[in-house]
Amino acid sequence: MAAIDVTLPRRLAAAAPGWTAEADVVVVGSGIAGLTCALRLRRRVDRVLLVTKTVLSAGSTGWAQGGIAAALDPDDTAQEHLEDTLVAGVGLCDVEAVRTLVTEGPDRVRELVALGAQFDLDAGGEIKLTREGGHHRDRIAHAGGDATGAEISRALITALQRVLDDPGIEVIEHALVVDLLTDDERAVCGVTLHVIGEGQIDGIGAAHARAVVLATGGFGQIYTSTTNPHVATGDGIAAALRAGARVADLEFVQFHPTVLFLGEGSTGQQPLISEAVRGEGAVLVDDTGRRFMQGRHELADLAPRDIVARGILDVMAERGLDHVWLDARHLGRDFLEQRFPSIVARCRELGFDPATEPLPVAPAQHYASGGVETDLRGRTSLDGLYACGEVSCTGVHGANRLASNSLLEGLVFAHRIADDVAARLDDGELALRTPAAADAPADLLDASHRIEVQRAMTRGCGPLRSATSTAAAAAALEALAALPPSAAEPGPFTWETTNLLHLGQALALLAHRREETRGGHIRTDAPERDDERWLVHQELARGADGRLVLGERPVSRPMGVRS
Ligand code: SIN
Predict the structure, then answer these.
(1) What pLDDT, in 10s, does the model give residues 37-50?
(2) For residue range 55-94, what is the model confidence (pLDDT) as tens digits?
(3) Ligand 1 atom at minimum distance from 305 CA
(4) 458 lies in a domain?
(5) Which residues are near ligand 1 (CB < 6 Å)?
(6) How many CA atoms lie within 13 A of 381 on its CB side?
(7) Ligand 1 pocket: which of 84, 272, 369 to mutate (most atoms <8 Å of CB)?
C-alpha cells in the first residue's frame, strides 16, 4: 500500500454529543438492506437501534422500478444467473460473492413473499418474471408493474411496525449519522448522529454499540443529475473512509442508459425509465429512427448497462445530440399503462406520452458499484463495522452491476450480517468498547459549495473520463478542501456536502489512476480493457496521519487477505 497526497480529516466538525443511546447493534439506513438486517437481528439480539436519515421509506429502495433478480423459474439456474453477473462485471466480480448471491437469492425472495411482499403473478399464480439488460433469461420479479422497490419497502416497514412495541428494537427517524465512533484500536463502537427530534433525543448525540451496520445507500448526489433521491449523499461511505475502513472499486459508477432527458439544466433526481421497458420490447433510436444498438452487441438494446450507455454516448457524440430516444409505441397504450403505471404517469405529468411518442433519454448516474469493502459475512476491515447494500463493496458487481441485482444483494447480505453479528454476540466476541477522545482534526465544507463539487465530478468523472478530466476534478476538489472550515456552519446540508467532497476526492483519484476502460469506467484516452495491468481492485484507506493509502488487490485474491 502506498500513501498518496489526499488527506482526509478523522471527523466532521460538529458539537459534542448532548445525549447518548445504548444498543447491541446500530443499523444505519432503512432500505431493503437496513430493514432486513434489523428485522432479522431483533429475533436474536436484545437491543437493536435502527436510525434513518429522514423517514423509513425515503431511501433508494422505494425508487427501484425494474425489480429483483433471482433464478426462480424452474428452467433457470443459479449457475446461469452467476454467469450473466460475471459477464456484466467485466472480470472484476468476486466469484464466491456472486455464487453466494445467486444461490441464496431465491430463498430470500420467497421469504420476502412470506413476509408480505406482493409480487406480480402470472395466470397460474406464480411470480411473473421479466427480462432486463445482460440477463439471458426472464428472472426479474416485479411488483405493481414498475413499483417493485416501493412494494418491498412497504412490506418491510409494515413488518417493522408490527414489532415496534417490542422493547428490543428502537427506531429513530430524521437521524443523520455524522461519524463513526472508534476506540483506540480503531474498532467501531457506535456513531455520532444528528437528530431532528423532540425532548431528550434532539441535536447531536452518540449511540454506543458493539456493532454498527452501515446500510446508507449510494452517493448519486455527487453528480448534477442522478436517478437517486436527495438523501443519497454517500454519508456512510464517507464516514467509514474517515474512520479508516477500506473502500474499493469507487471508480465504477453506473450510469443508467435510459433516464428521461429534461434538458441540460435539469439537476438533482431525474425520472428513470426502467430497463424493463426495453425488456418488454422498447428500442433505442437516433434522430433518424435508426436502431443503433443492433450490431453493437448480441443482446442489442438489452446488452449490459455499460454497453448500452456507451452506445448512446457514442451516438450522441457522432450526431451532435444531447439525448437519444426510447421508442415504446408499438407496445400499445393499454399494455404500457398496465405494465408501467408509475412510469407512464410520471412521463405524462412531465408532458411526454410513451404511447404516442418516443421518449428523449440520456444516461445519468444510477448506482455505485464500489463502496466499503466487505467479506462474505459483511464484515469490513474495521472490527465491529459491517456494510450492506449499495454502501458496500461485496465483490458482487465488479466493474458494472447486472440489472436488478442490487435489491437482491441487500437482501442476501443483510441476512448474512444479522447471522454473523448474532453469533459473535452469543460468543462474546464483540466487546463493549470505549470511544477514543474526539480530539482529531475535524473539517467542513459549507453547503453553498455543493454545486461546485457536483459540477467538478460531472465534468471530470462522469460517464466519459480521461486523465485530463479526472485530474481537473481532483484539482477542483482539492481547492475546495483547502477552504477554511471556519467559513462553514455545522448542519445537515454542510455535513452532506463535506461527505460528497471526501468521496469525490477518493473517487477522482481512483478514476485517474485506472488507465483503461472497463464496465462503468469509460476512459476516452484509454478506450481498451487492459487485463494484463488492471485485473485488480483499487482500495483506499485513511492512514493514521490522515493521508489516503492506496492498494491494489488482484481479483483472484479474496478480500481481507493481504500479501
Ligand atoms: C431499472 O429498472 O432499470 C433499474 C433496475 C436496477 O437498477 O437494477
Answers:
(1) 999 999 999 999 99
(2) 999 988 989 888 999 999 999 999 999 999 999 999 999 9
(3) 3
(4) no
(5) 64-66, 274-276, 367, 403-404, 406
(6) 24
(7) 272
Same domain, 87 and 130: yes
Q: What is the CATH number of the domain that holds 234?
A: 3.50.50.60
User: 375 with 408, same domain?
Assistant: yes
> What would the mean pLDDT of 500-527 be, rounded to a whole number?
97
Q: How many domains does the chain have?
A: 2
Give the contacts of 174 (CB within 8 A, at least 6 positions apart). Answer: 53, 54, 55, 195, 196, 197
The pLDDT of residue 431 is above 70: yes
* Nearest ligand 1 atom, CA 133: 3
Domain CATH for 288: 3.90.700.10
Query: pLDDT grade, residue 485 (50/70/90)?
Result: confident
pLDDT at 197: 79
List the single range of 117-126, 185-194, 432-441 with lowest mean pLDDT. Answer: 432-441
Contact 500, 450 (CB under 8 A): yes
115 with 233, same domain? yes
Testing ligand 1's pocket by substitution, the residue of 131, 139, 256, 397 carrying the most ligand atoms inside 8 A of its CB is: 256
Which of 360, 387, 402 lies at the terminal end of a domain, its last residue? Answer: 360
Residue 493 lies in a domain: no
Question: Which residue has 435539469 as its cell numbers?
Answer: 266
- Identify the domain boundary among 426, 452, 474: 426
Domain that holds residue 393: 16-252+369-426
**What is the CA(389)–ligand 1 centre distance, in A?**
15
339 Cα–ligand 1 center, Å: 15
Q: Is the pTM of this model over 0.90?
A: yes
Query: Mean of the per-residue pLDDT values for the chain?
Result: 95
C-alpha cell at 490: 455545522
Q: Which atom of ligand 1 is closest in space to residue 65's alpha carbon?
A: 2
87 and 192 together in one domain: yes
Shared domain for 129 and 223, answered yes or no, is yes
Please tell me whether residues 280 and 317 are part of one structural domain: yes
The answer to whether the beta carbons of residues 48 and 42 sit under 8 Å apart is: yes
Residue 5's pLDDT is 84
Strand partners, 2: 550
pLDDT band at 560 (very low <50, low <70, confident <90, very high): low
- 444 in a domain, yes or no? no
Question: Are the beta carbons of 2 and 549 closer than 8 angstroms?
Answer: yes
Q: What whole-number distance in Å separates Cα of residue 280 and Cα of residue 336?
A: 10
Within-domain flag for 116: yes
Residue 272 DSSP label = B
Instruction: Give, to the nearest 10 degrees, the angle between helix 450-461 and helix 467-481.
Output: 160
Q: Are residues 140 and 274 in the same domain?
A: no
One domain for residues 139 and 238: yes
> 332 CA to middle of ligand 1, Å?
22
Atom number of ligand 1 nearest to Cα 254: 7
Q: Which amino acids are annotated catalytic?
A: 305
d(CA 266, CA 350): 12
pLDDT, position 563: 39
